[in-house]
Amino acid sequence: MIAPNLIPNADYVRILPEIVLSVVGMIIMLLDPIMDERRSQRLLGVVALLGAIAALAATSFQARQQFWGFGFWEMVRIDAFSIFFHVLVIGVTIIVILSSYEYMEVQQIRAGEYYGLVLFGAVGMALMSSAVELVLIFIALEISSIATYILAGFRRRAAISSEASVKYFLLGSFATAFFLYGVALMFGATGSTSIARISASLTPFNGSGGPMLAYLGVALMFVGLGFKVAAAPFHIWTPDVYEGAPSPVVGFMSTAPKAAVFAVLLRIMFQAHAPGRVWLMWVAAALSMTIGNIAALVQDNVKRLLAYSSIAHAGYVLVAFAALPENAIPAAMFYTASYAAMNVGAFAVVGHFAGLGERKVTLEDYAGLGRRSPLLAAILTIFLLSLIGIPITGGFFAKFYVFSAALQANLIGLTIIGVLNSAVAAYYYLRIIISMYMREPRDEAPAPPITPGLGLALALSLAATIYLGVLPGRVLEYAAWAATFVR
Amino acid sequence: MNGLDHSILTLVTFAPAAGAVLLLFAPRRDREIRVFALLVSLFTFVLSLHLPAHFHRDQAGFQFDQNTPWIPTPNIHYHMGMDGISLWLVVLTTFLTPLCVLISWKSIHERVKEFFILLLVLETALIGVFVALDLFLFYFFWEATLIPMALLIGMYGHGRRVYAAIKFFLYTMVASVFMLAGILWLYANTSPHTFDFVDIQKAIAGGQVPGFVGAAQWLFLGFFIAFAVKVPLFPFHTWLPDAHVEAPTAGSALLAGVLLKMGTYGMLRFNLGLFPEQSRANASWIVALALIGIVYGALVAMVQPNMKKLIAYSSISHLGFVVLGIFSFTQAGLNGAMFVMLAHGVSTGGLFMLAGILYERRHTYEISEFGGLATPMPAYSTFFLFVVLASVGLPLLNGFIGEFLVLSGAFQAKPWWGVVAATGVIWSACYLLWMYQRVFFGVVKHAENNSLPDLTMRERAALWPAVIMALVMGVAPLWWLNTIDPAVRNVLLPFAQLAAKVVSR
Q1: Is A208 helix (H, G, I), strand (E, B) or coil?
Q2: Residue pair B62/B201 in contact by the 8 Å Cβ criterion
Q3: Chain A nearest C-alpha distance from B381 (Å)
Q4: Domain span at residue A156?
Q5: How far, in whole angstroms, is CA B161 from its chain's centroid?
Q6: Cβ of A476 and B169 within 8 Å?
Q7: pLDDT digits (tens, 9 = 90+) for A381-404
Q8: In sequence order, which residues have a C-beta less than 8 Å from that of residue A240 and are 6 or more positions away?
Q9: Is there a contact between A401 and B181 if contact means CB atoms under 8 Å apart?
Q10: B373/B352 Cα distance (integer angstroms)
Q11: Do B72 and A437 make contact, defined as CB atoms within 8 angstroms?
């Protein structure tokens, strides 16, 4: 019999944001069938938004240090690191919900469960960043993945969306199986699935040597996690899935789950002192950057282009993983945050321009947007410039920190590959800008006006992008402090 | 100390950007937008006159210093300052911008608001490049010049504008990435980590940067390639003719007048300032490229059928003089290089404006489309002749002083450098005067040229300042050289020590 006070109350606070998100998600699921179909969409969206805001409030409640530390038999841990990623994931969720209102209406998708799934996905992602136990991490990963598998197929009438969903589901399950296998081997090597204990048994080897099984375990775990962040050579699914999935969902799944998985990777690679980290990350980073950028050069579909760009950006983050922990962890954290801000914004604009059935997603459709819709074109331009890494945008400092972390670890070769890659990347982002401003439009019809929800979503992501580009100090300092908890 | 001195650089730098932000919210009334842009640029110019007025000519170091921490990690400071080298480049920028606004009055009639916003943002970035003393801040402004310029070319240019814009962007972007790598290396290897130009310079000179000896050559090259593409030095020049031909008039004028000087300024400030030994060691091949540029640019200019392309190639030739002067490491050479930069800014800016005026009337730059223009457009041809002569280097006009100083510096360094470079002066007379002859003299070959209207008041207002400046700079060069010289001598200080070391060995 379980004693009534076996779980202390503080433990519930340690998963409060997850509880809030799950409860609101379930409320949405319950409300959906009993509501009038035409009105459910809007109302459930508002409920989801309120739920996400409540989760954000719960996170800030957690941020009081009295709740910090381990909970649930050392399966979760609340510290600055987990709070950073909680805020990031829930922030992205809010922006995605805001930008989905209009999209769902334009696409004539009536489905309240959409918002429920977004929240369930956020539960998994939030839990990933606070879980310090590989099996719980696996469960969190699956919660987030299953939600995104379904979300990817939400454009039911489009075959391409169903294809995206099935492809993502099949390959994704395969990849998580690899992760699980890696966890099993890690258990064999170290006798535990708790990151702290793995760390204790691997620290003496200091990143090299140690049991062979641990190497294999790390490699297999990276197969699973590399798939989720779309790192080469596990990136093949990305362009097809991103092309087929609804744009706000792509904005979601290219930022929030990625950030959460990077959080897990940071824990495994740095906190657990994974052996063979440097060369594994070196190769994955170099491959992802190069493959992503070169393939993006020839894309004419904006969504596919941004898909390849997201592969490349995963590569930039992985550059940091090859560096020394004291610089690498804050750099990677900053990168995921600024990438989330600019990419979720970019996909919000893409979804807005796409129109019914997402027919307008090629570079040709973007021709003359600078004239037809000056404000949105300007906003998208800022996001793209940030993706290039131009100063006063978050993307610049993100690259800057990553490359300087690499240089401080004396990874000159990788830095050169990265820097050259970011120069190549400028070209394809510019193609979008050029199309918007320098090509004559095919049809002169002005783009649809901005609705309040989308406007707010764009304002938030734009503000974050610029803030990180002008005053990165505070976020970076917080990240540096958070990094001390996973070293 | 004047109260304004502490914040003047920030004010001058960001006044145009503030104007641009206001324009962002302005209604689309083209006329008012033009007037407002003109007022903002004039205000910036007047504000920038504070700088020469309160500049202490006898001091060599940086003045109007402003240094506040910006970002704690990495240690980035908002550090601005100015010496005799950057002083006049800033004033040149603020001087040319109002003229560019005037010259674009009529020729830009679509998306007027965006045009002036971009122009003002570009001005801010250009000024920032010249006053930034934190390497990070410098790189920030350096990259920031790219976007407005590329957009100006791509949105308002002529036929192949998109191609030219992409080429311009990619060339300079790729090259500056190497500089970024160099900057990051310097940051990582100084202790305490710093981007501050003055501190890094001291650390290098004092030998306190571990690993510097091995890396110095690569660092030098990293910085050099970024600047060489911008100048552009032969063989990195191929983006320039395309960019110039396709750019709108104001874009060309700022591109030739100021943007190219970012490269030579960078060489002077960073290559010579941070890596004197490597500058010395690499001088021979750099000078060889500069000499090739002088002669090659001039010869290619001679055979251009397109007026704007001709002026573009003449820029390559003139900028060759600047690089030659810088890498002669003589006082005369460096002073001359600085003076050529300023003179070239005024006169080539003028030439591009004149070419643009003709384009507005006939929509072509082909020299063969003209001939005998002196009859229908007497005032225009007089202005044109004046600017051509200034550019050729007629004594009493601004082109002469700089080229003369560069040549005398080059002769001091190695006589044959001077001999080859001197032919460039002759070539420039050939191609410019020949072009002038074909466009303005003889009989009017094409009937439509008979009815071309002469200059309007607005065009005159844009040209007079350039012409007057060309004359004043030619007659009273000391006014400029007095401030340039102490700064130049400061740059040359380590070279004198270097030479002394070599002699004592």
Answers
A1: coil
A2: no
A3: 34
A4: 9-483
A5: 22
A6: no
A7: 999 999 998 878 899 889 988 988
A8: A163, A164, A167
A9: no
A10: 17
A11: no
**Token duo for residue A200:** 């204790």
Residues in B lying within 8 Å of A, measured between beta carbons? 70-74, 111, 114, 139-141, 143-144, 146-147, 150-151, 154-155, 161-162, 165-166, 169-170, 173-174, 177-178, 180-181, 184-185, 187-188
A390: nearest Cα among B180, B38, B48, B392? B180
CA–CA distance, B376 with B388 (Å, rounded to integer): 19
pLDDT in tens, B355-400: 988 888 888 888 888 888 888 888 888 999 999 999 888 888 888 8
Radius of gyration for chain A, computed over Cα atoms and rounded to the nearest angstrom: 21
The owner of tokens 């990963």 is A141
CB–CB contact A391 B143 (8 Å):
yes
Distance separating alpha carbons of residues A387 and A396, to the nearest angstrom: 8
Residue A3 lies inside a defined structural domain of this protein: no
Q: What is the C-alpha end-to-end distance of chain B, expressed in Å?
A: 45
Tokens of B115: 């045009």
The 10s digit of each residue's pLDDT in A242-276 is: 999 999 999 999 999 999 999 999 999 988 888 88
Question: Exposed/middle/buried for B190, CB within 10 Å: 0-12, 13-18, 19+?
Answer: buried
Taking an 8 Å cut-off on Cβ atoms, the answer to whether A416 and B181 are in contact is yes
- Give dist(CA B68, CA A144) in Å, integer: 45
Mean pLDDT of A238-242: 93
Asked if A473's CB is within 8 angstroms of B173's CB, the reply is no
Across the A:B interface, residue pairs with CB atoms under 8 Å apart total 78
DSSP summary character for residue A271: I
pLDDT band at A4; cut points 50, 70, 90 = low
User: What does the block give as tokens for B394?
Assistant: 């007629």
Q: Show the tokens assigned to A196.
A: 């702290």
Given a cut of 60, whether residue A311 has pLDDT beyond it is yes
- Rounded Cα distance between B332 and B412, Å, is 9
- Determine the pLDDT at residue A21: 94
Residue (of A245, A201, A2) closest to A103 by Cα position:
A245
Query: What confidence score (pLDDT) does residue B505 get?
Result: 58
| pLDDT per position as a tens digit, B228-263 | 998 888 888 888 888 888 888 888 888 888 999 999
**What does the alpha-carbon distance between residue B9 and residue B128 come to, in Å, rounded to a whole number?**
9
Interface predicted TM-score of the whole assembly (ipTM), two decimals = 0.75
* Inside any domain, residue A4: no
- Which of B74, B177, B187 lies nearest to residue A419, judging by beta carbons? B177
Q: Which residues of A touch B17 (CB under 8 A)?
A: none
Contact A419 B151 (CB under 8 A): no
Beta strand pairing call for A76-78 and B76-82: unpaired
How far is Cα B266 from Cα B130, in angstroms, rounded to an integer? Answer: 9
Per-residue pLDDT at A118: 94
Q: Is the pLDDT of residue B461 over 60?
A: yes
- The closest alpha carbon to B267, from B240, B289, B242, B247, belongs to B289
Under DSSP, is residue A217 helix (H, G, I), strand (E, B) or coil?
A: helix
pLDDT grade, residue A207 (50/70/90)? low
* pLDDT over 80 at B90, yes or no: yes
Closest Cα in chain B, distance from residue A250 (Å):
28
Chain B contact set for A392 (CB, 8 A): 140, 144
Residue A392 included in any domain: yes
When divided into structural domains, chain A yields a total of 1
CB contact under 8 A, A403 and B184: yes
| Residue A17: HSE in the Cβ half-sphere, 13 Å Cα cutoff | 35
